[in-house]
């Protein structure tokens, strides 16, 4: 069996128990992390919030239907490139009649080994695309593309931020704790910091306090991620250290908007000084 990355997440969107049992058993035995949504609406929402590596959706869903879920994913910014496998009762004579954006079909009743073959093929292709992106990314880094450091102890949040910002052309590096974040800030000199407020050990406020008290990093823009709504008084306390904040769970498009706004403000300020 090929090597499975530490955090390879697959979302199953299905509402009949035999299908779910078959998929969960074969995927978990192959060491994949599996999440489940029992409605199409929940499947789309989880795809957006969790950013799985791959989605398997049953065409026979009672609410939206698998092909409708596929269509929504393909039209939703931030998840439009997610690999999708659709489960169908039988192969149609003309696959071109299916909605666009379909990577693979698996016929029901399911054969676990057939599912694994399809999943591994799609994930291998995705890994190759990541490798090619990394090569292009290194060229961007040398060419001076903006570098963003995301610091969060939740892997799915790091993936959500990383995938969406990389698609906008930014170079994204990550750390899972405050100590590593400070070391990476010193080593890589990022242009912006996306920082989780609540982490074990050194939390987000301790990190930004050290960043602001260091003359070399005092002007580093910071976007804080917080698990709760921030009161106006609390945000006033943050004003000297945080440029803006997002409450989890958040729409990645809001994050992109904040990032663009910060970089545009910095660029306009530098042009004004000239």
CATH superfamily (homologous) name of the largest domain? Response regulator
**Sheet with the most strands?**
5 strands, parallel
What is the CATH architecture term of the largest domain? 3-Layer(aba) Sandwich
Q: Looking at CATH, which topology of the largest domain would you report?
A: Rossmann fold
> What portion of the residues fall into strands of 2 or more residues?
15-25%
The SSE order reads EHEHEHEEHEHEHEHEHEH
- Output the strand order for the largest sheet: 2-1-3-4-5
Helix/strand class: alpha/beta
For the record, the CATH class of the largest domain is: Alpha Beta
- Return the average pLDDT rounded to an integer: 82
Radius of gyration: 21 Å
Shape: elongated
Total strand count, please?
10
Compute the number of structural domains.
2
Share of helical residues: 40-55%
Distance between the termini: 59 Å
- How many helical elements? 9
Low-confidence stretches: 1-6, 94-99
Architecture overview:
The protein is α/β, with parallel strands linked by helices and about 270 residues long. It has two domains: about 10-130, Rossmann fold; about 145-274, Rossmann fold, CATH 3.40.50.2300. The chain contains nine helices and ten strands. It has helices spanning about 15-30, 40-50, 65-75, 110-145, 155-165, 180-190, 205-210, 230-240, 250-274; strands at about 10-15, 35, 55-60, 85-90, 105, 145-150, 170-175, 190-195, 220-225, 245. The strands form two sheets. Strands 2-1-3-4-5 form a five-stranded parallel β-sheet, with helices on both faces. Helix 2 (about 40-50) packs parallel to helix 3 (about 65-75). Mean pLDDT is about 80; it is low at about 1-5 and about 95-100.
């Amino acid at each position: 069996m090929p090597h499975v990355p530490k955090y390879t997440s697959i979302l199953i969107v299905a509402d009949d128990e035999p299908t779910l049992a078959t998929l969960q058993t074969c995927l978990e035995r192959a060491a994949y992390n599996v999440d489940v949504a029992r409605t199409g609406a929940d499947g789309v929402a989880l795809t957006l919030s969790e950013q799985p590596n791959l989605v398997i959706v049953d065409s026979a869903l009672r609410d939206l239907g698998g092909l409708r879920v596929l269509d929504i994913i393909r039209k939703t910014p931030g998840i439009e490139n997610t690999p999708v496998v659709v489960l169908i009762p039988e192969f149609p004579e003309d696959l071109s009649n299916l909605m666009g954006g379909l990577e693979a079909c698996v016929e029901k009743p399911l054969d676990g080994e057939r599912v694994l073959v399809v999943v591994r093929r799609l994930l291998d292709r995705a890994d190759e695309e990541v490798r090619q992106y990394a090569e292009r990314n290194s060229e961007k880094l040398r060419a001076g593309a903006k570098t963003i450091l995301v610091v969060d102890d939740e892997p799915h949040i790091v993936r959500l931020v990383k995938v969406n910002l990389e698609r906008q052309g930014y170079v994204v590096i990550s750390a899972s704790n405050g100590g590593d974040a400070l070391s990476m800030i010193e080593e890589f000199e990022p242009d912006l910091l996306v920082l989780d407020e609540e982490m074990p050990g050194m939390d987000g406020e301790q990190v930004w306090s050290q960043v602001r008290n260091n003359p070399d990093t005092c002007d580093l823009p910071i976007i804080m991620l917080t698990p709760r709504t921030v009161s106006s008084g609390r945000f006033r306390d943050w004003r000297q250290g945080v440029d803006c904040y997002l409450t989890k769970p958040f729409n990645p498009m809001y994050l992109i908007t904040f990032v663009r706004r910060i970089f545009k403000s910095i660029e306009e300020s530098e042009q004004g000084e000239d």
